[in-house]
Write a structure and sequence with these properties.
InterPro entries: OGFOD3, Oxoglu/Fe-dep_dioxygenase_dom, Pro_4_hyd_alph, Pro_4_hyd_alph_FE2OG_OXY. The chain is an alpha+beta fold and 251 residues long. The protein has four helices and 16 strands.
Length: 251
């Protein structure tokens, strides 16, 4: 694996850590949006955007939603925007499947907190990359993930392969992750790894920690397999192209 350098330890309390790296050419094959498409690329970590208490509240939203389904393998997702929920080896639409019962699972407060957290993360990314927050749009997929050590049953469960978000999804320009549980306390393995030519740089999850980066090949990454326990996170992705924008979820 080459040398591994830890970009953020779980025990660190980072106000703001940012590492600038040269942008890849991935953005050139898509329409550019002045004042938003990355000209400065890199990766950042902050423990100062979301509190641990807020992260716990967000995690409870994920736990309630995922308790309705869950994958047979080790990786389950819940997308409050599209309603996609892992169920066995497939996905169902949460809103269609549960109908009005959804009101018993989520509250207006849940969705208000989700929106508020999303806006603060968007604001922070805009500040760090020197762009206008209003030129960024939430895009899909934006989703909760729950990972454990159960062996993969389908390719959807194989979350550990290296990938580039811009190549995988096209619409992504900025990717963020909000961690909802603690590395080495709630789960083992499951660190986030940036795969650079010379070495790997890892981020150890910590509840309330936000990790964010430009979505091109300059940030090839993967997640280590979870060996024990349960890892919760939410991936929140942004695009510069309004045509790929999505709205916040609403009850």
């Amino acid at each position: 694996d080459g040398v591994t350098e830890v970009l953020a330890h779980r025990s660190d309390n980072l106000r703001d850590k940012f590492v600038e790296i040269p942008c890849s050419e991935d953005y050139d094959s898509h329409k550019r949006f002045e004042g938003c498409t990355p000209r400065k690329c890199g990766r950042g970590v902050s423990d100062a955007v979301i509190t641990r208490e807020e992260a716990e509240r967000i995690r409870r939203i994920a736990e309630r939603g995922l308790s309705l389904g869950g994958s047979d393998g080790g990786a389950s997702i819940l997308d409050l925007h599209s309603g996609a929920l892992s169920l066995g080896k497939h996905f169902v639409n949460l809103y269609r499947y549960f109908g009005d019962k959804i009101q018993d699972i989520f509250t207006e407060e849940d969705f208000a907190l989700y929106r508020d957290v999303r806006q603060r993360i968007q604001q922070r990314i805009a500040e760090v990359f020197g762009i206008s927050s209003s030129s960024m749009y939430l895009t899909k997929p934006t989703f909760f993930s729950r990972m454990n050590s159960t062996e993969a049953k389908t390719t959807h469960d194989e979350y550990w392969h290296p990938h580039v978000d811009k190549v995988t999804y096209g619409s992504f320009d900025y990717t963020s992750l909000l961690y909802l549980s603690d590395y080495s306390a709630d789960f083992g393995g499951g660190r986030f790894v940036f795969m650079d030519a010379d070495s790997n740089k890892t981020v150890e999850p910590r509840a309330g920690r936000v990790s964010f980066f430009t979505s091109g090949s300059e940030n090839l990454h993967r997640v280590e397999k979870v060996h024990w326990g349960t890892r919760f996170a939410i991936t929140i992705s942004f695009t510069c192209n309004p045509e790929h924008g999505i709205g916040d979820p609403a009850l």
